[in-house]
UniProtKB/TrEMBL annotation, chains A, E:
Keywords: ATP-binding, Nucleotide-binding, Transport. It comes from the Bacteria. Residues 1-26 have a biased composition (Low complexity). Residues 1-29 are annotated as: Disordered. InterPro entries: AAA+_ATPase, ABC_transporter-like_ATP-bd, ABC_transporter-like_CS, ABC_transporter_ATP-bind, P-loop_NTPase. Residues 34-252 form the ABC transporter domain. Belongs to the ABC transporter superfamily. The keyword Transport applies. SMART domains: AAA. One of its GO terms (molecular function) is ATP binding. This is ABC transporter ATP-binding protein.
Automatic annotation (TrEMBL), chains C, D:
It is a multi-pass membrane protein. One of its GO terms (biological process) is transmembrane transport. InterPro entries: MetI-like, MetI-like_sf. It comes from the Bacteria. Keywords: Cell membrane, Membrane, Transmembrane, Transmembrane helix, Transport. Residues 54-234 form the ABC transmembrane type-1 domain. This is ABC transporter permease. It is found in: Cell membrane. GO terms for cellular component: plasma membrane. The keyword Cell inner membrane does not apply. It comes from Azospirillum argentinense. Belongs to the binding-protein-dependent transport system permease family.
Length: 269, 304, 252, 252, 269
């Protein structure tokens, strides 16, 4: 069963090249940075994903939203190449990109300091050139660089995980609800950081969130997932340049989406 | 300086090491034309392993072991060292006067149920008193030092131990009910059969006949000194580890009593008969598949 | 703080006290008291025998320990991570784990002669399966979420081993090292009994033949002192350093 | 699936094959081949000696195992959770861990007579410190977040032990049990050698006196078979059940 | 240093007894269900809390909001009686209440099934009377009752943690960001469940959240925490009955709060 791919009502936001920092053309055309086809994924017999098809252009930012337990994390795990036990294909239209990943939980090594947690995922040459420290400082964590993760608050650990994913300068960035358990100002700072980083070194992003406002603020395209076995139930391209998306716009788009007649959108709020 | 070397694996402080010390002290090896080297080991098994592993030329062991090894294909052979044997000891005040009184008693036995002394004691009890000691008494098998300790505390009614340990018990005031030599006599084995001897590979003996002869000569000279000189035993004191004067004297006397006087065809035949008896009593567990004494168990080159 | 420094002293005093009382009550040659053992210890130390034998035994133990820990943990981690390897060699492990020490020692001596190498090798072979069992168990219990993280970031194999796997195995290494030292000590005693002319095992057995328990205990005490020193100066500081990251827990 | 069932058979065949080749090459009485050992095994089984001695040894081991595991793990968990207890008794642990088996066995026999109880007790005393060391290490590594959860919900002490602590200690129990079985076996051999009149250790000693390695190996093989059976029918299924919750991991 | 306790500008929402389901009087008066005074709390010398004073009337619902890493979780841990190593006092004005707790991470026992995770915190008598199953069903988790937690999605694990805390029928309920990583409809259902539960069996609630809308929707009083060393920087009583707080009202209050001149409120968005 494949997503019926309806032709979406053309958005009322104007399209702009700067939304796609790599600007190698429109998301639809060009070489695909990520093409993931999951015909079926099962856990112990139970089907979790059926007919999921994801394609992201280089530098495209895809936001996945969908009900709890539908299979978003599973899809991300497959995209990361961690789980090969599925029926389908994964390719990057070229050599494997450098991967950055923010897992649903921070997954910091408890026995390594915060600094080491960031440095260890870097290539050997870059481990002590200040990259880790720079990213930690950007996250407001310079004071705890030598602490062990067990001594951090939930939000601090999450920011270390963000620093780790950003520090590798990923070509493909997988983020599973990266900004939860952060207070709103901090979360906003993190989003701004992400945007800046993407502008400087463009990456294809797969971004899972339950926060529709966040998705609208950041994504080039929002994929609404169906309840399990999941697939893409609806797709929303967002064409306004990210820089022009202010609170009012976000609220307006959100209201517009929630009002759509398609049943997929009823699962959003 | 070009004297052939003979390396012997011995128990440090063991009875054999006393004699070897006499050889070295009086330079009897030099006189006989060989060089005696010692490898000190902590147990009889270590010595056996050393011989099998080729680390030593010679060790001290009993000929039953040699016979079984030969039966299994090893080329080991034996020359006598000592006829001293263990004894059945009881406390001075014990009512046990003879083997017949062992009925219902706890008997400590050094080693295992196929220990030679225990088999002889059982045979004697059965032949002369119609007593099956396995059933009628309670044998307790344990390590020799442990048994001596138990005898002292009275946990055991009688102890059948190897001679150096029996000597200690005697010195401590215990009484001998019967010695293993007595058991053999009562069972009709007249000649004195040396139980412990020097054991070596036939191949080594053939390759080093001069060294072997020289060693035998030196050994006999040493025994002669030990038989006559009390002063020599004073010198040996530190090696003997005797707790007191009485033990020291008992060890000396028993060692002297055990010096083999004859090693002729008669003794060898007695040994063969004893082996036959053992094979009957101990069965395959003791003697392996050879029900008769294998040829060559006793090195033919040495007799006196 | 004061209590912390006092506790070990108290502990030692209590142990020696209990020993003295037990010896007094037993009043037997089979359990000499601390004073008797100490006097033997001093005598043996004075004539150098103690240091000679203890030194040799410790050297043998050190060699066997290093060999057993490195080979054993490599195999243990391998069997723990690869189900195939485990299926193929699990049986071998049971076999080698349960071959009596005696057999290994005798075979080593008979094959390789009564040499230092045979002795050390025999001890190591006795200990290796033990290390394998402990580390295989530890490797099986490894938390996969960190391994997944490392794989996602394409960390090098050596880095995964060093930064992800080994830190989780620390308690297993500590257990294998501590119980291993004790096991190696016990086996080295047998090895020395069966084919060496020196070392504590050799010495202890001589004392056993004389039923001189004071002599045996003197060497035991000397060895235990060395191990406790090792414990305090090496094992505990290293372990503490490696587990610094654990949350400090209030006394339960 | 097929591979899974085939692997153990292959593994056994390989082991026996290697053994046969080694024996052939050695061509020495000190390493008899599988056929020779099997024939001794059959002979001993036929006259009942095998089952008699093996049965007795297994009974002693079982008793010592149960005692050592229960006392050892209780102490290990205690020392692991209480820093005070550890500071007070850490030294004792080092001492008891490193007392030579010989000393414990001799003292047990001297004090409690040449009895079954003394033998089993001596084996247990030799093993207990080992279990303590492993479980203390495991207890120290316990994840506090679950203990905190349990304390927040005011779970009963017994429930905390059963549902929070013990499940985390499973790998340590498994390691202690496996290496423990092997250790107990090795010690029971010495215990039987020094003061019992039956059992495999006694029997092996007889063979050793005759330098009959085939006899020793026959009993070893019989024992290993029993342990492997235990491994396949008890240890592995139980362990699998207890660790069912672990995520299934792709072969690395 | 103590919170200066300024007299807050009286709110423009009307007060209503039904906000306090136990209704033993106004929150200010009567027997206190929770009184926590933390003069100082340090970790390895670093002061994390200074002069924090919390008092909740029986049945009162306090929401704590504040910047990441300020010390909210630490305060909750102390309130739970888990951490006694602080300078200050904790009392419940009576016997210790039954505690329910939703930790910042789910903290499910991975080696026990979902059902057992809920049942094990119940008194022995109630472990197999269907309580656990009822709560799991309420969370939409009946299908995974016999699974191990490692096989759940992040949101599902969180719901199990909620079921566990609700199942004990707590007198004091501590919740540390309980509704993160849930999609909005599920989160709303959970909030409704919480409200219903509190109506049926009233509990005093200490609720940490970074979601100001959620705080406004649920709390009797919002405590705004200062950045570390933390204390209560501002307090906002909410007097409109919970049932009457619709989206529009929530947005209105939020805007009003964010517009306040007090610097504490600048940390909220
Ligand atoms: N290792 C596993 N074994 C069995 N089932 C699993 C496993 N991992 C996930 N599942 C199941 O797969 C489904 C999808 O899980 P997944 O974690 O992908 O959900 P999700 O969309 O990320 O949800 P959430 O938003 O709650 O994180 C769930 O029903 C879950 O129970
Ligand atoms: N065990 C610990 N050891 C040392 N410092 C700790 C420990 N636990 C917490 N801290 C420190 O205490 C401060 C407060 O932590 P806490 O977890 O209470 O923050 P929080 O308000 O819950 O933050 P968040 O919203 O990110 O969860 C942080 O700076 C943290 O680094
Ligand atoms: Mg998820
Ligand atoms: Mg927190």
């Amino acid at each position: 069963m494949r997503t019926p791919s309806p032709s979406w009502p053309s958005s009322n936001f104007s399209s702009c090249a700067s939304c796609n920092p790599s600007s190698s053309g429109s998301p639809a055309g060009g070489r695909c940075a990520l093409r993931l086809e999951i015909r079926s994924k099962r856990f112990a017999g139970r089907e979790v994903i059926r007919g999921l098809s994801l394609a992201a252009a280089p530098g495209e930012f895809l936001a996945l939203v969908g009900p709890s337990g539908c299979g978003k994390t599973t899809a991300l795990t497959i995209a990361a190449g961690l789980d090969r036990d599925f029926d389908g294909t994964l390719d990057f239209g070229g050599p494997e990109p450098v991967l950055g990943c923010v897992f649903q939980t921070p997954r910091l090594l408890p026995w390594r300091t915060v600094r080491q947690n960031v440095a260890l995922v870097l290539p050997k040459a870059r481990r002590s050139d200040g990259t880790a420290e720079r990213w930690l400082a950007a996250m407001g964590l310079e004071a705890v660089a030598d602490e062990f993760p067990g001594r951090l608050s939930g939000g601090m650990a999450r920011r270390v995980a963000l620093a780790r994913a950003f520090a590798v300068e990923p070509g493909l960035l997988l983020m599973d609800e990266p900004f939860v358990s952060l207070d709103e100002p901090t979360a906003q700072r993190m989003r701004a950081l992400l945007t800046t980083m993407l502008e400087r070194s463009p990456a294809t992003v797969l971004f899972v969130t339950h926060n529709l406002r966040e998705a609208i603020q950041l994504a080039d395209r929002i994929l609404v997932m169906a309840p399990g076995p999941t697939r893409v139930a609806a797709e929303v391209p967002l064409k306004t340049p990210r820089a022009l998306r202010d609170d009012a716009l976000v609220e307006r788009v959100r209201a517009e989406l929630l009002a759509r007649p398609d049943p997929a959108f009823r699962l959003l709020a | 300086a070009d004297r052939p070397a003979v390396t012997i694996g011995v128990l440090k402080f063991g009875t054999v090491s006393w004699e070897l010390d006499v050889i070295r002290h009086h330079r009897l090896d030099e006189a006989a034309g060989f060089e005696l080297k010692l490898m000190e080991l902590a147990s009889g098994q270590a010595a056996q392993i050393a011989l099998q592993g080729g680390a030593v030329d010679m060790i001290a062991s009993d000929w039953l072991w040699v016979a079984r090894q030969r039966a299994a294909g090893a080329d080991l052979t034996f020359i006598p060292h000592s006829a001293a044997v263990g004894a059945l000891m009881v406390p001075a005040t014990s009512p046990i006067a003879s083997v017949a009184d062992l009925k219902g008693r706890r008997i400590g036995v050094a080693g295992t149920p196929i220990d030679k002394s225990w088999l002889l004691l059982k045979a004697l009890a059965r032949d002369q008193y119609a007593l099956d000691l396995d059933a009628a008494a309670t044998p307790v098998f344990a390590a020799p030092p442990l048994l001596n300790q138990k005898a002292a505390t009275g946990e055991l009614d009688a102890v059948l131990n190897f001679w150096p340990y029996a000597a200690r018990l005697q010195a401590a005031g215990m009484r001998t009910v019967i010695g293993v030599d007595g058991m053999m006599r009562d069972l009709g084995l007249s000649a004195q059969v040396p139980a412990v001897g020097f054991v070596f590979h036939e191949g080594w003996a053939r390759a080093n006949p001069a060294a072997l002869d020289a060693f035998v000569a030196a050994s006999r000279k040493a025994k002669a000194i030990m038989a006559q000189s009390d002063a020599e035993w004073d010198r040996l004191r530190p090696l003997m580890k005797a707790e007191d004067e009485a033990t020291w004297a008992a060890l000396r006397d028993q060692f002297r009593a055990g010096i083999p006087q004859r090693w002729t065809e008669e003794e060898r035949e007695a040994a063969a008969r004893l082996y036959g008896l053992m094979a009957k009593l101990g069965g395959r567990e003791l003697v392996g598949n050879a029900m008769a004494l294998p040829d060559g168990t006793f090195w033919p080159g040495v007799r006196f | 703080m004061r209590w912390r420094r006092l506790a070990p002293v108290l502990s030692l005093a209590l142990l020696v006290g209990l020993w003295a009382v037990a010896a007094e009550l037993a009043a037997s040659r089979s359990l000499p008291g601390p004073a008797a053992v100490l006097s033997v210890l001093i005598r043996e130390a004075a004539d150098g025998a103690l240091f000679h034998h203890l030194g040799i035994t410790l050297a043998r133990m050190a060699a066997a320990f290093v060999i057993a820990m490195s080979i054993g943990s490599a195999l243990g981690i391998l069997l723990g991570r690869s189900a195939t390897a485990d299926r193929l060699f699990g049986l071998w492990l049971t076999v080698f784990l349960n071959i009596p020490a005696l057999v290994v020692i005798v075979l080593a001596y008979v094959w390789f002669g009564l040499t230092e190498a045979a002795a050390v090798g025999a001890v190591a072979v006795n200990k290796i399966p033990n290390v394998v069992v402990v580390l295989r168990e530890g490797t099986r219990a490894i938390d996969e979420q960190y391994v997944e993280m490392a794989r996602t970031f394409r960390m090098a194999r050596s880095d995964v081993l060093r930064h992800v796997l080994l830190p989780q195995l620390t308690p297993y290494f500590a257990a294998a090292a501590r119980s291993g030292l004790a096991l190696i000590w016990k086996i080295v005693l047998v090895v020395e009994l069966l084919g060496r002319s020196d070392g504590v095992g050799f010495q202890i057995h001589l004392y056993f033949q004389m039923f001189d328990v004071a002599g045996i205990l003197a060497y035991t005490v000397a060895f235990v002192a060395v191990v406790q020193l090792l414990e305090l100066c090496v094992l505990q500081p290293v372990e503490q350093r490696l587990t610094r990251w654990r949350p400090v827990r209030a006394e339960a």
